[in-house]
Give the backbone structure.
Amino acid sequence: MKTNVKRTTIYVDARLHKALRLKAAETDRSISYLVNEAVRLSLGEELEDLAAFEERAEEPNLPFEDVLKELRRSGQI
């Protein structure tokens, strides 16, 4: 079975690399697998954020200054 895999070089902080090596050993997974899963999760969260922005696109914008004034008026700050 042939998979669609691309090879790349990434640079990570030495402490992150050590953590990745340990996690890979403990979970019997490769560092590549762990990085791919982390990227997939991150991109999935981005997709959810974009959907939320689209869903709320018709809502009015509230100026930050007005929000602060309302918080002060209500005694919350």
Notes: The helical segments are 14-27, 31-55, 64-73.
